[in-house]
Specification:
Structural class: mainly beta
CATH class of the largest domain: Mainly Beta
Number of strands: 13
Strand content: 35-45%
CATH architecture of the largest domain: Beta Complex
Strand order of the largest sheet: 1-3-2-6-5-4
Radius of gyration: 21 Å
Oligomer: single chain
Number of domains: 2
């Protein structure tokens, strides 16, 4: 997967007054923290951060600090974004620092592809999950996970343990339903909860 890059500047001052002045100049106060990495305060251009967040790319970014080149030592996850309740503008950003060899827990969206056999027979495709929690190395984080529903017949389901993605471990305690095809003509065959109880 591609890792986004974001230019930031080191910030030595803090406080509400400093934050207001930065925001008036189109800047956003930010902080980076994490296990085995120091808490560091930054400033980031609001427009650059908006472009990053609206690009639809992964939340994994490499920071370029004070004009230096990006480095795997500064790989980070966009942990939290705070918005002004009135204007909706970003007012603060939190980055969680990660190490290249550290396994990460992240949520990844699901994309359903193909036309299920059961849908062609009059059934209704019922996604039970839109994203999954996974554990993997930073550069193995997928933008999304494709779930091929083509072979799914009436009343059939795909469960989390049916998915196989190289380098990715799914974080789950039960073999829950991802998607199913239900018979709408005669009513729903089974609820997701009933199927999960059987799995």
């Amino acid at each position: 997967m591609a890792i986004a890059e974001l230019a930031v500047e080191t910030r030595t001052q803090s406080g509400k007054g400093v934050a207001r002045r930065l925001r008036s100049k189109g800047k956003v106060p930010a902080v980076r923290y994490g296990r085995e990495c120091p808490v560091t305060h930054y400033t980031v251009d609001r427009n650059a951060l908006d472009r990053l967040l609206s690009s639809g790319s992964s939340s994994l970014v490499a920071l370029a600090v004070d004009g230096a080149a990006v480095s795997d030592e500064l790989l980070s996850i966009v942990k939290d974004i705070q918005h002004d309740p009135v204007s909706g503008k970003i007012i603060h950003a939190d980055f969680y620092g990660v190490r290249y060899g550290e396994l990460l827990h992240v949520e990844v969206p699901l994309v359903f592809v193909g036309k299920a056999i059961g849908v062609a027979e009059g059934g209704l495709l019922q996604p039970a999950r839109r994203e999954l929690e996974i554990k993997c190395l930073p550069r193995k984080i997928p933008e999304h996970i494709e779930v091929d529903v083509t072979s799914l017949g009436m009343g059939e389901s795909i469960h989390v343990k049916d998915l196989k993605v190289e380098g990715v471990e799914f974080v789950c305690t039960t073999n829950f339903t991802i998607v199913s095809v239900q018979n709408v003509a005669g009513g729903a065959l089974e609820s997701s909860e009933e199927e999960e109880a059987k799995a």
